[in-house]
């Protein structure tokens, strides 16, 4: 039975809902939202500290967030990041990098626990090994994120040069414009594949994580854009929560993102279990 047929199976969807409810994915998503919030600004600060060595600027980083983040949240991120940069001391940069990796890895550690519960396996790796893996995955995510930022800079130059060799420089402009819409989802898909493959304490075939990664990528994009539209047009969180409105919106966005991420892991785990009995 193919993966697509399994996912479309009515019984599979019912089992997914039951399995997700049993594993308390809403509670786990709330934990993820908390750790994501703790990790966000140290992670952005670490990336910004690399800007002098890269052909990108702060606006390039914020432009990536603008594609999905609610406007109210984006304004809060911009203002807080500006305050952090203005009050930062360069002598503390080395310590800041270590603190960033440790803080950001907590979010990855929470993801590992959620995926272990999805696969119904216990964490048998030592605390040092588990945290080291979380740090490595965090570094990998930073690398992929930087690659996503650098790709438009170097990708356009390299692509234009290659097309020019074949006398197709005019056609490249149209192709590159179309490709720019594909790059962000593709980078996100690669991140999800890496998380679903390495994070659980279970040997998994690479192709076995693709269904959940695809659904998580599409689901996260749809939910993020939908939530952003709702906040911009119907949500009045500033009226209810005052100056905390931006934080509430950010936490809700992280919460929904956590649910999508865990659901993708649940789908992979259930497909893997079902194939054993097919």
Automatic annotation (TrEMBL):
Annotated Gene Ontology cellular component terms: plasma membrane
Transmembrane domains' residue ranges: 32-54, 92-111, 132-155, 175-199, 206-231, 243-265
Compartments, record wording: Cell membrane
Keyword Transmembrane included in the entry's annotation: yes
Tagged with keyword Nucleus: no
InterPro entries: Virul_fac_BrkB
Predominant subcellular localization, coarse grouping: membrane
Recorded topology in the membrane: Multi-pass membrane protein
Xref: Pfam families: Virul_fac_BrkB (PF03631)
Keywords carried by this UniProt record: Cell membrane, Membrane, Transmembrane, Transmembrane helix
Protein's UniProt name: YihY/virulence factor BrkB family protein
Gene source species: Heyndrickxia sporothermodurans
High-level lineage: Bacteria, Bacillati, Bacillota, Bacilli, Bacillales
